[in-house]
Design brief:
The protein has 304 residues and is α/β, with parallel strands linked by helices. The chain is 22% helix and 27% strand.
């Protein structure tokens, strides 16, 4: 699993700071999460092939999370893209994009497929052969979701020495890794657990964009390998976090600690702060394994 941060700052633009967008690759599948202004330029800078993006997830319709979407869609058309593009986002996102396409008389070479979201409860919105994705309902000034990505378990692992000792033909191996028992010529049934080990550990990633402190998400993200959680403010500005329905770095650390996640990545910093190290130090008062997002930074995770 690899996470590439394209941008991780909040709304106020600065020359060197990019708004929220990131690319997650899980088991060979590539997902774009949020699409703030300049996302397509950041994709180019980080040498991420446009054609690999089949699914885009938009957490909410504030500009710093979606104003780059129409530009990216238009560029895909200029490049004569052919595969469908799936867009998952709040109800209204289809009109938001289609009005811009109509007013600019932009004609696409591919099909846009919108999956509009309005449920206040967690909902599975995508399932491929390798990955499932579900919403994480958040609390912000407008309807907002985070997203939970879970790698699906692979095949069971063969105990080759046992299979050979029992003279089980290789033709049966494919069904055995899928969990099937084996019937020997003598009629004896060999349970799958005697022939295999469990599948290798899978990886999971939770993206929690703009949200007020919301401890009830802990149950859903329990034990995820990696949590990205917004930390717009430091604790000294907790009053601003409350008013704007954002979180502090310490609050993000509390969520990570309660959920027992493997790693916490902080982002969505307010432009009022010059030193992001302060966010890391604050979150570490309650949770040990804290990393800081920054534009262009990549995080890579391997199976144990």
């Amino acid at each position: 699993m690899e996470l590439c941060i394209l941008g991780c700052h909040s709304a106020t633009p600065k020359a060197s700071l990019n708004p929220t967008s990131q690319v997650l690759e899980v088991n060979g599948e590539v997902f774009l999460i949020d699409c703030g202004e300049g996302t397509q330029v950041q994709l180019r800078r980080n040498r991420i092939r446009f054609s690999r993006i089949k699914h885009i997830f938009i957490s909410h319709l504030h500009g710093d999370h979606c104003f780059g979407l129409i530009g990216l869609i238009s560029t895909f058309g200029l490049l004569n893209r052919q595969p469908d593009l799936n867009i998952y986002g709040p109800k209204g996102i289809e009109n938001f994009i289609k009005h811009q396409l109509a007013l600019t008389k932009t004609h696409l070479s591919y099909q846009l497929i919108f999956h509009e979201l309005e449920s206040e409860e967690p909902k599975k919105i995508l399932e491929t052969e390798k990955v499932s994705v579900e919403t994480i309902p958040l609390q912000h000034r407008i309807y907002t979701n985070g997203f939970l990505f879970k790698e699906k378990p692979g095949d069971r692992q063969l105990l080759l020495d046992v299979l050979q000792e029992l003279s089980i033909e290789k033709a049966y191996y494919k069904s055995i890794v899928k969990g099937k028992d084996v019937k020997l010529a003598s009629g004896k049934i060999i349970k799958n657990e005697e022939l295999t080990l469990p599948p290798k550990k899978t990886l999971s990633y939770a993206f929690c964009s703009d949200t007020a402190f919301k401890p009830d998400i802990v149950k859903q993200i329990q034990d995820v390998d990696v949590l990205y959680h917004e930390a717009t403010f430091l604790e000294k500005h907790e009053d601003l976090a409350y008013k704007t329905m954002h979180s502090t770095a310490k609050q993000a650390g509390i969520i990570a600690q309660k959920a027992k996640v493997g790693e916490l990545i902080l982002g969505h910093y307010s432009a009022r702060y010059r030193d992001t190290e302060d966010f890391k130090e604050e979150a570490e008062t309650v949770f040990d394994n804290v990393k800081l997002a920054s534009s262009g930074k990549k995080f890579t995770y391997h199976l144990a």
